[in-house]
Amino acid sequence: MCGIVGYIGNKKAAPILIEGLKRLEYRGYDSAGIAVLDSNRVHLVKAKGRVVELQKKLSWDLGGNLGIAHTRWATHGEPSEKNAHPHTDCDGRVFVCHNGIIENYKLLKEGLILRGHIFKSDTDTEVLAHLIEENLRYGDEAFSRALKKIKGTYGLAVIIKSRPNKIFAARNSSPLVIGVGKDENIVASDASAILGRTRDVIYLNDGEIAIITKDDVKLQSLKVQKFNSSKRPQILKVAERKEKLDFNLDDAQKSGFPHFMLKEIFEQPESLANSLRGRIIKNNSLAKLGGLESVREQLKSIERLIITGCGTAYLAGVVGKLMIEELCGIPCEAELASELRYRNFFPEKRNLAMVAVSQSGETADTLAVLRRAKGKSINGMTGSKNDMLTLGVVNVVGSTIARETDAGVYNHAGPEIGVASTKAFTSQLIILALIALFLGRERGTISPKMGKQIAEEIEVLPKMIKQILKQSDQIKNIAEEYKNFNNFLYIGRKYNFPVAFEGALKLKEISYIHAEGYGAGEMKHGPIAMIDENFPTVAIVPEDSVYEKMISNLEEIKARRGNIIAITTEGNDKISYIAKNWLYIPKTIEILTPILSVIPLQLFAYYMGTLRGCDVDKPRNLAKSVTVE
Ligand code: AGP
User: Which residue intervals define the domain SIS in the entry (predicted)?
Assistant: First the structure.
């Protein structure tokens, strides 16, 4: 998710653009840039880091009343000044701000380079600037002609030196809204950048283009536009599209949700789709992970895999371990980085690889383990003699862990603002599932038929999550019923064993209630002593290979007057004989159930926290990224 803002009107553009970027900074903040057209000169200024770094580079009297600006959340290309938007064509006549992913950019870039274009950045976005450059002879149509070649998602704001009184905007999957003001118009990736200047807005729909002047907005539908034909682009009526913004800045940044945490829980169908985008080749049932290409051969021969991380990231690693052992036949350990960093885990053999899982890419303990695996001694603990292969599963592009691992896969889950890891966790799980598919197909432990089945099941997960989220009111009612309980047990088995711990962690860190995750098989070895009517159990009990075992655990709990909240498979009506409350997840293959079973647990923790008056986005004593030991 990046932040885009464009301004055209009677006032100086730069201050308005910077104010807009500051309001959009929650969407991405690794670099920022601005392009302002002043007479026939464009001032292009970029900076790595937050918007304030860009502001420091701007001269106060930057003229020009037309401009676009961008605050970046990197997906392709490290965070840097050269990769910051706006991106330009060869001669600095076209300026592009983009939010989204251009899936076919590599092919387009090859063709453009062959046709003599010189690229300045590593981003996917820059290809669009050069495509527009190739179509400048078509005047206003240059933008739409270039867009026709793009596959992928975009929210765009573009200015062209030779079209000095216009901003070109377009939307495909990444939201874009136009603020209609008095002698001025603003375009932005969300309304937070527009509030304060106008409340009259037009939301662009997918496949629409807008040509924006200071006193007019022309809407066109890209879909029906035919070129070199008499058929002119379909002009859409603007008047019918105007809406009134009726919310404040805070609401806008949370897209109308009361908290970032809830917004990010509900974002998971989209964030999971972004994590999957372009990474499954269904016809030969392969996972396409560009970030592992350079180590493909080494991965074929690894004999042992260590997955490490902290907190939720570690628990994702435990699920990943089970997936990889089951699908790839590789011995795999999931280790808490805060423990592993003080142990000698180096093999006598060379063929060991490590996967560091981290949303922020900055967690101190995870980084310390990684550095020891790369041979560095840390706090008196020697580093590995044989330089281990290290991979990262990281959400923040260009973060320290991402830069220090040999290879890896970015989550592309977008910035996670809430301290509790929600969409990052499901993204980590899906990336680890893709890595298991990648390894299994490479090593021949997954047949094409089985790979196809896994790929098909993975592809429908975003839709399944949408289905689960429809139960949010029931979950809120259940939280209402249990909000005064002060102890919870979470139990699961096999793939949902780590999910029990993740569910408990969510409840602990959001509502400060004591909650324990436990393997259900361990009940008789101690935990069942705690059970009575004051000690409810959350049980993850999908209809899978250990379902009957789980049911017998639940019968033991019920026999001791323990209340049960069950997460089970849709259609399982027998659960009502044992559980006091139940929630459903759609049927999927067993190894993917954690991606679904965690969703109700996230919502339960959220509602328990809000009902108990906790600051769910910034829980007490916690930081989003633990960069100290
Ligand atoms: C999870 O909800 C917590 N915020 C915390 O456990 C987090 O997962 C852990 O600190 C690891 O962070 P990382 O993914 O950024 O490395």
Answer: 295-445, 478-619
- 510-525 burial by CB neighbour count: b if 16+ within 10 A, else e? bbbbebbbbbbbebee
pTM exceeds 0.85 for this model: no
Ligand 1 centroid to residue 412 C-alpha, Å: 17
Task: Out of 445, 474, 490, pick the residue that ends a domain.
Answer: 445
DSSP collapsed to 3 states, 1-15: CCEEEEEEECCCHHH
Atom of ligand 1 at shortest range from CA of 310: 11
| Active-site residue, 2 included | yes
Q: Nearest 5°: phi and psi at 172?
A: -150, 95
Residue nearest to atom 5 of ligand 1 (CA): 311
Tens of pLDDT along 487-520? 999 999 999 999 999 999 999 999 999 999 999 9
Q: Active-site residue 624, yes or no?
A: yes
CATH number at residue 403: 3.40.50.10490
The amino acid present at 406, given as its one-letter code, is: D
- Tokens at residue 505, please? 């962690």
Ligand 1, atom 4, residue with closest C-alpha: 420
In a domain, 139, yes or no: yes
pLDDT in tens, 61-107: 789 999 999 999 887 788 899 999 999 999 999 999 999 889 999 99
**259 C-alpha to center of ligand 1: Å?**
18
Phi then psi for residue 198, to 5 deg, are -160, 160
Regarding whether 79 and 157 lie in a shared domain, the answer is yes
Same-domain check for residues 497 and 423: no
Q: Which domain holds residue 352?
A: 254-445
Backbone angles phi, psi at 556, to 5 degrees: -65, -40
d(CA 170, CA 262): 28
